[in-house]
Amino acid sequence: MRNSLRSHGGLVSHLSILIIATFSTHLLRQVFAIPRTCNLFQGSWVSDNSSKSNNIPLVYDSSQCPFINPLFDCAKHGRPDRGYLRYRWQPSACNLPKFDGKVFLEKLRGKTIVIVGDSISFNQQESLTCLLHAAVGPNSKITTEFQNTFIDEFQEYGVTIAEFYTRFLAQITTEKIGRVLKLHLINDYGNVWKDADVLIFNTGFWWDVNGNQKGWDFIQDGENNPIVRDMDRTLAFRKALTTWAKWVDSGVLNFAKTKVFYQGFYPDHYRPSEWGRPELKDCAKETEPMSGSTYPAGPPPRLSIVEQVLSSIKSPVQFLNVTTLSQLRKDGHPGRYSDAGNGFVDCTHWCLAGIPDTWSSIIFAYLTLDENMA
Predict the structure, then answer these.
(1) Across the chain, which distance is largest between two alpha carbons, in Å?
(2) What does the pLDDT look like over 339-365, one tens digit per residue?
(3) Whether the Cβ atoms of residue 110 and residue 159 lie closer than 8 Å to each other
(4) Which of 4, 8, 14, 119 is catalytic?
(5) What is the pTM of this model?
(6) What GO cellular-component annotations does this UniProt entry give (predicted)?
(7) How many Å apart are CA 56 and CA 351, to the nearest integer?
(8) Which of 79, 162, 230, 247 gets the highest tally of CB atoms within 10 A of its CB?
């Protein structure tokens, strides 16, 4: 898998880990046992006063993590408030285990995690890598390369984390007429994804983008169907996700080895009327999460499509429905505090440290509780 990843290019970060801790499977069950019936995605954000620094529970210092994209480093770009780091996600019927990087690396020893999606998936990968980097200390040796695939390798544990950037999961081909988004074909990188031990998928944001920024010029649904300039985007989203689901069920994946997750619909916060602040223009002035466990505007309309398609899959796929808990965090975006420039207010991506660390903690909970990952 690692050679296959590198053959596709990558930002390769070799982390030589100097601190090695061993944990038995029995101890993992003791420390991280939570009811399997608990819904980790239903709950609310609560103030956490257990911090050692100004009542803010910093899981890592963004200035000490070399992996953070400047788009996500809100502290570096002058965000004055730190309160958005003071909250933790509290499920209604149980507790979310605190992320422990050494336990994670020991549990995943020798395995490869592949995160597939758009730039929000970069948020996820960088969160996970920063959490692990903080756990192993500052003496890690790091080398980097860059092409198209981002790969972080924790060498002492043999753990590799890769992020494949793809906006649609479906394939885009370059033809004489231009770029054609083929809804009936899985992305070519599927040949690499299939060898991973953990796969985390997502798609969503780019299905509504227009103009040259959308990433394709024409669209096709079926090899024998005509190539057209556009179609209903919600229908296109459903068709591409269905193609992915068929790929999952096609037998290409070895589910005795590979654990598959689909990460829920990532929300943005450009419409303050959704959370009762119509006098605002965007998320820029928000500094606190919403109280309670429901988002006033309800779930994104296409979340139901995700749920329907996932319910049709016969293979074991875990739905990481982080949608609502992320909707409640209107305060978690970079806003004006990134290197996007030109006065752009980013209410799509997320600050790091920040909300993606909770996504990582949920992944941690699922993987450390999985008997088959031992």
Answers:
(1) 62
(2) 887 789 999 999 999 999 999 999 999
(3) yes
(4) 119
(5) 0.88
(6) Golgi apparatus; membrane
(7) 15
(8) 162
